[in-house]
Each structure stands twice: as structure tokens, then as C-alpha cells.
């Protein structure tokens, strides 16, 4: 079993990401203290009864994160939507011991990292496990979500080498391959690899909404293409809005590319179409996606 | 076990679609004669050794479809790419008994149905099982591909009620829910539910090709969004080219929609963004996708 560089962990946000993280910790042999707080009544009930490795996954569950006894916590994980992070940075600054480390799992970084660093300094370092699912809540949580994935650790304006080393050790023990990116590079890259695809999937399905007869006429292609459009619209509106500059820049390039392809389709020669599709297929073959 | 209204079936094209169809026929209890032809050396070898229900799946395999003994066949299934259909329509017209039925599985209909009807008349009726996978070849074939799906039967300019009834029975026995569409409606609908999503997935990945560092920075979202961009570029260039009028019309509407969303992202009010994503999510929830 792996060794975790933290032994008293609290997770705020017991939805899919936080709940799965808790289950994965126990599945990978974490034997330290684990507290949890925050979530719907269903999330809290399921978290209370969750078992892993023959024991309760959580040592303590609080409904309200403000009631979490944080005095001995050495790692606080904020598994909440990006829009909700600020309030928990403040809670952490007021209640955590000085040596405790704080991280989050959010998909968009710039605003939040600036706020987190302002309140917590270098003991806050942002994480982004490249994991996703369109489901919500602890009911959908499972330890295998944290399997065969990469986790980005984000370098903001302040970084502490020891905090970075401990978080690297934590994610490695949780099965991740850890990468380091500065905040701006993270947000630009994720606009391309996650945020704009979400916008496209939602936008594509929105356009089909006026033609209900199409609902019977799709196969597995559209199902997978649009899986991410089953995600929480509030979460994704928040992510897209926070990262709108990078998303718009990438969207402009896509619109140009689509315009070019439309020109090909309007012409007489299908060869450039085949060349484009072939390049797309080849590029995809170089991506290292999570296996499930 | 189901009753199949044909008892002497030949499949031309022993790739993923044709191979899976053969396996599914045996899995669903088809006990009649089954011949196959056409495919790579690997496809042919795997088809020759394929077993189902304790017997060889195929009674006879020919390398060259022209060598298939078609004199007693009552259903010929053309499981070849759309660009290859014409030559087999001619083969069928020359060699099949007058009462035999011919169908194909292609994803685009207009040109091909016109050609098929010109050579075969009403004994040809086009099918489109809404099934897909990005893999190729008999090696990827499995009976479960034909599970929990819909199959469109296409009405061209000539339709024979008895042929239609027998093909409806055939697909129903193969587990499909059968729908009927005229050729133009099929191609317009499939441009929206399949062809343009393929173009988008290929085009999106093509745009990422200049940034190899992104290959480590994608999660399950882009993996699923772009799964269809792992498909055969030649097949899809052919489909998109054959249906380019409908694809371009749909693409124009998408580009308008994306332009509107870009305007929202450029503005001060995120509410219309959330409204769009919510409509996209709601529309998706009304789709009936195959379950796997």
C-alpha cells in the first residue's frame, strides 16, 4: 500500500469528485483520519454509511463545513465548484493550523488561485486531477474514478517547495501521474482540452432542441460526443465564464477551421477533407486519455 | 429464439459491421445458411474461424465477393463503405435470384439508394442500423454491437410492401426497433445526429495537432467527445462528401449558434450562457441513445 504524506485529511464537498476521492483514499490504503462536510442530504447520508477496507470511510461527517473541527487537519481538500471556493479559503485561513496544506480540484484556476494565495499564501496549492464524469453526487462516486489519470499541480505566484513535494506525494500515492503547470498555461490548455469541448457539446445539443424527432435518430457517436452535455450546466457556465478569454480565443480558431472545411465541402475536390480528417485522427492517436 | 424471415443470407464486407451482424445472427438463433465475402486477409481468417452457438458462424467464406454462390440466397447484405456500394449492386443484379432481397447498412443514402433502385428495383431497400464504433475489422466485431438499437429502413422512390415487411421482420428479430424514413429525411437527420458531430470531432482534434503538449492534458471529457475522430477518415470523408449539402446547412446553423455564444462570452451577463447550457442538457436528456 502507498504511503500518504498527510494523516489527517478533511474534504469539503461530498459530491462525485470529493466522494470518489474519499473512497479512493481508503481503497489505496490510507489509514489516517478522514473528515468530510458539505453536500446534499443524500450526499451526507451516503458518505456517513460509506464503507471501505472493512471500516467506515469517514471518521466524521459534518453537514456544515463551518462545523468541521479543523484544528488537527494537515490537508484540506476543497472539492466544491469553482464559484464556491472563496468562502472556504476564508474558512481555512481562520481555522486551520499554520502548517496545514490546502488544495482544490477545480477545472479553472486564474481567479481562484489568486484569491487562495491572497488568503492562504504558499500553503495553498491548486490541484486539478484530469478526471471527469457527467454524473453528480456521492451516489455516483466510486474509487475507480481516481485510476489511470494525470493530476496537474498549479504554480501560482507563490509556491512552497515542501508543500509542492507533499502534494506531489499525495497525488502519486493516489495513483496519479503528476504534472506541473503555471496557472495561465493551465487555463489556456484546459480551454482547449476540456472547456471548449463542453461548450460545443452543450451548444450542439441546444441546436437540436427544436427538432424532437431527432431524439430517436442518434447512435453511439452522438451519445459519446455529447456525454459531457449531461454535466451540470451551472458548474460549466461558471467554468466557461471564469475562463472566457481563453475559451473565446480557442473558439475563434475553431470557427476559422470550420469555415475552411465548409469551403472544402462547397468545392469540387474532396481531397482536402480527407487530409483534414486524417490529421484529426492522427492527432487523437497521440493523446493519452484516461482509460475509462 | 427469434424467427428470421430469410434462411439463406450472404454478407459482403466482413469488417466491424458485417462481422458483428454475422455474430449477432447466430447469437439470436439464426440457423439458416450464412455466407460471407470481402475483407482484409485478417477479416477473412477471423470470419472463417468464428464460432457461435457451438458451430461455425459462416457456412462459406469467399475472398472475392464475385465468387459467392448467390443462386439460392434470399437476403444479400452489403456491409461495405458507401463508396463501394455501386459495384455490388451490379453484382447482385446479375447473380441473385429474382425473389432475393438486397439491403445495405450505409450511413448516407441519397446517391446510393438511387443507384440501387436503378439496378435492383424494389427488391433493394436500404437499412441503417444506428450502431457505430470507431474500431475497424472483424477483430473488433462482437454480437453485442446489435443490441438495444434502432434501425432505419429507407423508403426511396420504389418500395415493395413485402420486401419492407420481411426486412422489418429481419431487423426486429435482430433486436432492433425499426423506424421508416424517406431517403431525404434520413440524410438530413443523420447530418445532424451523426455526420456533423463526426466532422466536428475530427476538426477539433486537427486544430490541437500543432500543440503536442496538450496530449497529456485531456481527461475523459475530450476522450469521449472525440472518440468518433478515431474512426476511419476515408469512410467519413466519403460520408461527409456524399451528404455535404445537408452537412453544410447544419454547420451554418451551428456556426451561428457559436457566434451567439461568443457574443455572450464577450458581454457582461453570464445568464444567457447558463440558459443555453441548460437547454443543451435538457435536449440531451430527451435523446434515446443506445445503452453501450
TrEMBL record, chains A, B:
Prephenate/arogenate dehydrogenase domain segment(s): 7-292
Pfam family, one: PDH_C
Keywords assigned: Oxidoreductase
UniProt-listed GO biological process terms: tyrosine biosynthetic process
Keyword flag DNA-binding: no
Database matches in Gene3D superfamilies: 6-phosphogluconate dehydrogenase C-terminal like domain (1.10.3660.10), NAD(P)-binding Rossmann-like Domain (3.40.50.720)
An MF annotation (GO) of this entry: prephenate dehydrogenase (NAD+) activity
Protein name, per record: Prephenate dehydrogenase/arogenate dehydrogenase family protein
